[in-house]
Amino acid sequence: MDANQILGVAANAGDEEIRAAYLSKVKEFPPDRAPAEFEKIRDAYEAMRDPRRRARAMFSAGESGAPLGSLIEGRGVPRIFAGPQPWREVLKNK
Amino acid sequence: MSLGVSPQSSGIATNIRQLIIDGKSKTALDNAKEFHKKQGSAESEILLIDAYLARIRALSDQNLVVEAKSLIALVRERFPSAKERLDNLNSAAAARGGDLDELLKPLNDPGLSAERRAAIEQVIQNQVTDLAALACCAALPPDHGLRQAAAAIDLAFGAVTSGPVTDQQIALPEVSHRSPLANWKLLIRAIACFYRNQDNACEDCLAAIRPESAPWRLVPAMRAMLEATPGAKLAAKPAVDLKPAEAALKSSTSGSLGELQRALADLDQAFAHAEQPAQVFKAVRAAVRECRQSAPDLLAELRRMVCIRGEVACLDTQRMIVALDGAPRRDAIFFRDLARALERTGDSEDLMRACECWDCFRQEAVREGWFAERGLEVAALYLHMAGLLGRMPAVLLREMQRTFGRAVPRESNYFYFPEELYARACLIDRHPDAFSQWLRWARGNSMVEAENVARAWSKALPDAVEPLLFLMEESEKRNAFPSALSYLNKAEQIDAVNSTVRAARLRLLAAAALQQLQKKKPNLAAQRLAEIGALPQSRQGDRPAFLDTLRCLICLVSGDQPGASQALLEVERVLGDGLAALIFISGCAASAKRKELVFLPLPGTLSEQQRSHLPASMARAIALAADIGLTRNFRLPIEYFDETEAQFPRISGSLKVEQIRLLGELGIVSEHPGLAWAASAAGLDRGGPTEAHFLLLRARALPEGLDDRYQALTAAAAELGRTQRDMEVVSRAVEAGRDFLDEDPLSLTADQAREVLRKEKASPDFPSRSSAGPDYSDLFLDDLCMCPACCAERGQSSDPDLDDIFDPGVPELDEDEMKRSFFEKAPKDIPREILPALFEVAKESFFSGEDPAEILSQIFLEAAPARKNAPGRKKKKGRRG
Q1: A94 and chain B: CB distance < 8 Å anywhere?
Q2: Is A12 domain-assigned?
């Protein structure tokens, strides 16, 4: 997994965004409770902090030549806007 | 009568309360009536009222509002003490029936008690679901906060369930977190997150909704709807039975991706046959239509991906935009993805197009704020682009630079010129890596250019030792020793402990001294000798023998025979081997191009003992030459190598491993593969940590044509080197494997490497036609040819789809190679602009079965030379010479 994917930021994320994502991930996976995850997160942060490595990650992100079907891989059932009525019907019944 | 004293009565009362808690209000009321009839106490009356209230709530929950109100009136009449509790219930029942006036009217009373207000607000929170009615309730003034909050929520609810909303649309500043309608705000956020596919955030909002509140009625249904999405927090929870309205909601908000999946697969298939553009455009239209219907949020991404594939396949852009029903945004992401897609084809022209796209990416990314115009990212991008151009054959690159860049000035198409890209990168980011890449590229281009790059590097980073060492080595290669020494002086000032720097001074001074001898200037050579003698490192190991050798040669050049004899004796004394001393002095004289100064007898004239000792003497002399760094012109008569090879097997047991290694290397450089082979056999016999080295030596000594064995040996050497932590061998073995194929070399497991080692130890003889050595075909099973003929030969059935690919009637075309050859062979008088068109003609002729050499001769009106490997046909993979 790429460093930006581990931190959950876009390849073009700025310094502040990367730092915020890192801190949020560290809160989620603190070193004492999830050392392996934390290690990955720290490595990813180190990679993203280095502008040269970050740039290389930026250039290699995106289009991977995978089949177009990959566009909808991992997506659940599409969600349809059905208007307020069916929602209100549920609210009426306790 | 007292209720509390009788255990039986106490048990009945407890039973009634339990029935109330369990929601069995009807039974509880019947029992309470019976109980109160028998007891008639104050306690039994309280219990009866509680049972009535539970029953009223139950009726109200079942929307039996009329029945609930009748019961309220009845209880009010019979039990005046329950008035206040009944008022609350009455309001709630009315509210539930849609009559909010009665519930809300008391809120206009300034003297309303806090308890009563709280009770009313609780009813609003828990019972009111018709927000439109609340927003229009005449019992409150129009500007009342509750009415305004209800109106805002109703509007947001309608919006969030009907289409995508912005955060602003659902901000609801009118609803404070203390409002009885605060849970609605959470519900609306949950619905927005649901439609944005932010399932975890959706669940967080749902979890914050109070379970007794009216909006919570949607929570079970929404959780069931979230379960359909992989990765949601609730995905693992068991499904709950949904009520009809909830099931209807789930069904009406759920679509299907099956059709889109099929449309995308069809489109992939169509792109695989892009020679039929009409089919592609038809599939594009179908996919866009389906995407718009079932996943409209993906439409922009789909447009981008499809448009990029169309560009790579050189499909008509305008037709593609029409088929896509709109052009994708030509932003930084678009250009990045297009550049990446072009890079992947590996085609030379596409690599140049990729560079152009990367330049567009740079401009857009700067505009969109990804990075600064002269940021380090831009430098990294320039290096990346230069690396892409470096993947192209140099001749073709120059040709295409002329073709692509003719019409526009260099400044506008700088991205076709690696030197321009490297220079720009290094200007922005003066980093050693950037200069190092530039230098590596320049070295492959021209040494003059490389030296200019090294000078630029040294100027930009005065503390960098690498460019100085490069300049020093280049000067040394040109025998410009004063320049080399001046670069060394600078390098020593920067990093005196650098191993290359430390080894250089002795080597350079030695070479400079030998050069003076070549120029017949013994006095200047003596000066250099004095400088060498002053170096502490010249007194280590056998090195004093080199000083005496120099002294000997200086004496010989000066005509001082006694001095020379004295020095020779010293050399013999230090080395402890008269023959080794003579060999070393002879080699040094050859380095100074003064072979005539020393007479080295032919091996045939040596005594039997000297001949049998020759491998050890050679090893000793060559080890000293290697230690000093005199490897370039250290020449010895070929007869000495022949004799060493002949004597080696007999005395190899008495040599040290290091001597065997040296003799092996000697065998390689002197083109005596038999000697190298014998050394590898002796080395492998010794076992231990040098086995990887001797496997690699054996690979290098292999005769041409034994490709499988060569690959197996280099791969095994690399793996054993890893195990033995000999990284130098690993790196050399990997390089040797790569050189062989120009691609990733074979890799073996540790067990496979040990098996190769075992087989090699069991095969000490030099390969011959009758005995090629061990069979390693089992290591190449993945590479088995799958053509029908080979499959049939192996007794396997082939895939019928492969028959077309392996049709022997269809020639195999390496377009890049053919193009390169074509441009190289084109006579200078043919205008360059028409070459691409001529090339297309040549390609078509090739496919129609004509010989490529003949095609070229016909086109260029030259006689076609008979060649073994015609251009355009892939050569059989083979080891470099």
Answers
A1: yes
A2: yes
Task: Answer whether B242's CB lies under 8 Å from B222's CB.
Answer: no
pLDDT digits (tens, 9 = 90+) for B47-85: 888 898 888 888 877 777 778 888 888 888 888 877 777
Q: Is residue B239 pLDDT above 60, yes or no?
A: no
Distance CA B857, CA B835 (A): 14
B333-366 pLDDT tens trace: 999 999 999 999 888 889 999 999 999 999 999 9
Q: Which residues of A touch B213 (CB under 8 A)?
A: none
Closest-approach residue (CA) in chain B for A13: B370
- List CB contacts of B141: < 8 A, sequence separation 6 or more: B108, B147
Domain that holds residue A7: 1-61
Residue B618 near residue B583, CB atoms below 8 Å: yes
Fold of the B7-127 domain: 1.25.40
Q: Let me know if residue A41 belongs to a domain.
A: yes
CB pairs under 8 A between A and B: 159
| 3-class secondary-structure state, position A79 | strand
Residue A40 domain-assigned (yes or no): yes
DSSP lists the bridge partners of residue B254 as A79
Given a cut of 70, is residue B772 above it in pLDDT? yes
Six-digit token pair at A41?
A: 């997160």
Count CB-CB contacts under 10 A for residue B21.
10
ipTM value, please give it.
Answer: 0.79
Contact A80 B215 (CB under 8 A): no
Rg (CA), chain B: 46
Whole-angstrom Cα distance, residue B649 to residue B607? Answer: 18
A12 vs B contacts (CB less than 8 Å): 332, 365, 368, 370-371
Compute and round to an integer the Cα radius of gyration of chain A: 19
Looking up residue A27, the CATH number of its domain turns out to be 1.10.287.110
- Per the prediction, chain B carries an average pLDDT of 83
CB atoms within 10 A of CB B673: 19
pLDDT of residue B567: 94
Say which of A51, A80, A89 has its CB closest to residue B245: A89
Q: What digits encode the pLDDT tens for the residues B820-835?
A: 666 666 666 666 666 7
Per CB-CB distance under 8 Å, the chain A contacts of B429 are 52
In B716-787, the DSSP E strands lie at none
Place of tokens 């990997």: B734
- CA atoms of B267 and B400, how far apart (whole Å): 33
| pLDDT tens-digit readout, B507-565 | 999 999 999 999 999 999 999 999 999 998 898 889 999 999 999 999 999 999 999 99
> What is the C-alpha to C-alpha distance for residues B62 and B47, in angstroms, rounded to an integer?
23
Domain boundaries, chain B: 7-127, 145-236, 256-329, 815-860
| CA pair distance B33, B671, nearest whole angstrom | 117
pTM of this prediction exceeds 0.90: no
What is the number of domains present in chain A?
1
Residue A26 is assigned to a structural domain of this protein: yes
End-to-end CA distance of chain A: 46
Chain B residues touching residue A80 (CB < 8 angstroms): 252-255
Give me the amino acid identity at B675.
L
- CB A90 to CB B249 under 8 A? yes
> Residue B641 contacts by C-beta under 8 Å, 6 or more apart in sequence?
B666, B667, B670, B672, B675
Of the candidate ranges B87-96, B543-552, B685-694, the one whose mean pLDDT is the lowest: B87-96
Beta-carbon separation of A75 and B295 below 8 A: yes
Residue B844 has pLDDT above 70, yes or no: no
A66 touches chain B (CB under 8 A): no
Of B256, B305, B375, the CB nearest to A68: B305
